[in-house]
Design a protein that fits this description.
- The radius of gyration is 28 Å and the shape is globular.
- A hairpin with a 2-residue loop joins β1 and β2.
- By secondary structure, it is α/β, with parallel strands linked by helices.
- α3 packs across α4, α3 packs antiparallel against α7 and α10 runs antiparallel to α11.
- It is built from 24 helices and twelve strands.
Length: 731
């Protein structure tokens, strides 16, 4: 290799790799946000996007490995050419793809993202291994692997920049143009880096710096160690976005910590990584047990336990991966295996698990995989404090395993019978977890201890529910049906009640958020007085079909539902509202906003928007463009009803701003019934182009005017939930 003139310029290569990674992970939430209006706001939209990004990353790393046979000069020229060609697809805009057929979203969503961002993402993703290889070409460069820490730090910064800066301050069009300018600046840095190695780019390919024999076991670890954190990142994302809201702010938390774990794991100074390696076995047991113990409660404890588990386990496994790295002559091969492992974890969690499992079984399975991979380190010495005899150690581990499982099972049974946890429950759980840590003396007993805890603290009850066929899972979420002793049946979507039907003689009585004193109940029960006889009623969001039993003679009803699984619950006898009250109702499948846009003007006299995504209304149904579609489908003198009950976001000022911009009259009714007979508090906002229907509705209860509008109006091009978050409900 020719002698390289000048200093190694570590800062230049660090800046170039940082810039590329910053752009990569700034574009991920940006494109997913672009796609939300077409995808129903489902939490799995982000997981589908991540599958595409991981596949493109794998392709980019494969390309970087493939061109390693050429000289550095040719590598640089090839890559600059690829970047220029990919730049022809900028600025980014959503690809014009026809809408998906119902049930094919799991394939259609990745196809949409691939066409939208594929070329640019592929070109930029190759830079991490390429730049490290170019940097290592300098004889004074030193270890190039810590540059990967800078790469992931740039990725982390890009993720934070989107929800905190780009989304609140810029429209999607401005974001796309800003990303294009960043792409041009990054192209200049890459050209400079290539030019700085011009003296090392002769006609021959670079000589290997060293020879490191790598066996198949080591290669398998290169796949497994990144696969488990990748899968955990997606399964944690599913939990957060299902029970809160499918927005970039919550998408980036698990992914951001995942990237930060690479920064710590690949850092040249190993002190911090060693701390995570020490903590990992403890966190797998403690946070893994707490996460499954608190699953289904949708509280801060479950969220924090899952996030901490992801961060610590990912950092420990990535640190172990760094320790297994090869010499620089196999650098691109190492990163290719890493990318393949990350893609495997993504395929398992994002593609296979929703098809194979009726519940989020991927999460406990990945916790067990983490238990099998995290270094046990000094925890192996625990048994030496008890006995050095191997036979005694075996007996203690077997007895300990038996005690841990049965104690955890008894604790879980007690908690299930209680309305809320008390301090003695948490103390008992802590004692059980401490006892379980003794089992870290051996790898097999440690994995079995994790399995025992996960099964006893909720896994067994979920397994029985799966065997009993009590749950269904689709692209849009996990549903479970329970039947009480009094005959009442309840549909749960994640941890949110999606509908209740009473047993006995009251099967037609509206319940949950749709009781007779709710806003929608008051409007539909008095529809004849408000909009006249023979009203045409449209309802977005079927649920269990509760609203159907407000139907009056002569009315024509149409339901809109995006998830075929939900329809099955109302058609196969699980819930009978539809069959009893509106057997001839029309049913429109697909995203309601797209279906409404296809209808003739003035199709409905009353339009109800009740499209929950677990605990949140999809953001794309609360924009100016969405409101224009609703108005178009309303007949003159028609009434629009929005269900805005929400634990985490103040939607009333958002709707007030929409009403102001669209020139609509609006009022709100907060129903606070005595919590009995399965009727819950709810918030409904009524809007109309004229005062007449609202004046008639106001006679049914003490409806009030909306609060003063706040902030800029939400559009498909711009929306930020940050000003409206109810922070105390996160705590």
């Amino acid at each position: 290799m020719a002698e390289v003139a000048g200093p190694p310029r570590r800062w230049l290569f660090t800046l170039a790799i940082f810039a590329g990674s910053f752009l990569l992970f700034l574009v991920q939430p940006m494109v997913a946000r672009m796609a939300l209006p077409q995808l129903g706001g489902a939490p799995n939209v982000w997981n589908s996007a991540m599958l595409v990004y991981q596949a493109l990353l794998l392709a980019g790393y494969g390309y970087a490995h493939a061109i390693g046979r050429f000289s550095l000069r040719r590598q640089g020229l090839i890559h600059l050419g690829v970047l220029l060609l990919a730049g022809l697809t900028l600025p980014l805009a959503l690809a014009p793809v026809s809408e998906p057929q119902s049930g094919w979203e799991v394939l259609w969503v990745p196809w949409l993202f691939l066409l939208t961002v594929g070329p640019a993402f592929f070109a930029v993703s190759a830079q991490a291994p390429l730049i490290q290889r170019w940097f290592a070409a300098h004889p004074q460069a030193g270890n190039p692997y810590p540059l990967y820490a800078a790469s992931n730090l740039g990725s982390f910064a890009g993720l934070l920049a989107y929800p905190l800066l780009a989304e609140p301050l810029l429209s999607l069009g401005a974001q796309s143009w800003g990303w294009t300018l960043g792409y041009i600046a990054m192209l200049g840095l890459i050209a400079w880096a290539v030019f700085s190695r011009r003296d090392a780019t002769g006609d021959a390919a670079p000589e290997p710096a060293d020879s490191d024999q790598v066996g198949w076991k080591r290669r398998v670890m290169w796949l497994l160690l990144p696969a488990v954190p990748s899968g955990l990142m997606l399964s944690t994302t599913t939990f957060l976005t299902t029970d809160i809201m499918a927005i970039p702010l919550l998408w980036v938390i698990p992914l951001g910590l995942y990237l930060l774990s690479y920064t710590i794991g690949f850092a040249e100074q190993r002190g911090t990584a060693q701390i995570f390696l020490f903590l990992a076995p403890l966190v797998v047991l403690v946070d893994g047990g707490i996460a499954i113990f608190a699953a289904g409660r949708a509280d801060l404890l479950a969220a924090v336990a899952s996030v901490m588990l992801l961060f610590v386990v990912a950092t420990a496994l990535h640190a172990r991966l760094y320790d297994l790295r090869p010499g620089t002559d196999r650098l691109s091969q190492f990163y290719l295996y890493m990318a393949a492992g990350g893609a495997l974890g993504g395929v398992f969690t994002g593609l296979l698990a929703p098809v194979l499992f009726d519940w989020t079984w991927e999460h406990p399975l990945l916790i067990l995989a983490a238990a099998a991979l995290v270094p046990l380190g000094s925890w192996r010495g625990l048994m030496r404090l008890i006995s050095k005899d191997r036979q005694t150690t075996r007996v203690v581990l077997i007895v300990g395993l038996f005690v841990v499982f049965n104690a955890a099972l008894l604790l879980y049974a007690r908690v299930q019978a209680e309305t809320e946890l008390v301090w003695i429950d948490w103390l008992a759980l802590l004692v059980i977890l401490c006892l379980a840590m003794v089992l870290a003396a051996r790898r097999l007993s440690f994995v079995l201890a994790c399995a025992a805890l996960l099964m006893a603290l909720g896994g067994l009850s979920n397994l029985l529910a799966s065997i009993g066929g009590e749950r269904e899972r689709s692209y849009f979420g996990t549903y479970s049906i329970t039947q009480r002793d009094d005959g009442d049946r309840i549909l749960m979507h994640g941890t949110t009640i999606h509908g209740i039907q009473r047993g006995g003689a009251d099967t037609r009585e509206p319940t949950a958020y749709y009781g007779s004193t709710s806003g929608v109940g008051l409007a539909l029960a008095n529809a004849q007085a408000i909009v006249g006889p023979d009203a045409r009623i449209g309802a977005v969001g079927l649920g269990v079909g509760t609203l159907a039993c407000y139907r009056q003679p002569g009315q024509e009803w149409t339901f809109f539902e995006i998830d075929p699984t939900v329809v099955q619950f109302s058609r196969n006898g699980d819930f009978t509202f539809l069959d009893q009250c509106t057997p001839d109702a029309k049913l429109q499948m697909g995203d309601a906003r797209l279906r409404l846009a296809d209808l003739p003007p003035a199709s409905f006299d009353v339009l109800v928007i009740d499209a929950f995504s677990s605990d949140a209304i999809p953001l794309h149904l609360l924009t100016v463009e969405a409101m224009a579609i609703y108005e178009r489908t309303l007949a003159p003198g028609g009434l629009l009803l929005l269900h805005t009950s929400n634990r985490y976001v103040r939607l009333e000022p958002v709707v007030a701003r929409l009403a102001e911009v669209r020139g609509l009259d609006a009022m709100v009714w907060q129903d606070e019934p005595v919590r009995r007979n399965d009727v819950y508090s709810s918030t409904w906002i009524a809007l109309a182009p004229t005062r007449a229907p609202l004046d008639a509705l106001s006679t049914t209860a003490d409806w009030r005017l909306l609060v003063e509008p706040e902030g800029p109006v939400w559009t498909d091009d711009y929306a930020s939930v940050l000003p409206y978050l109810v922070w105390e409900n996160f705590l």
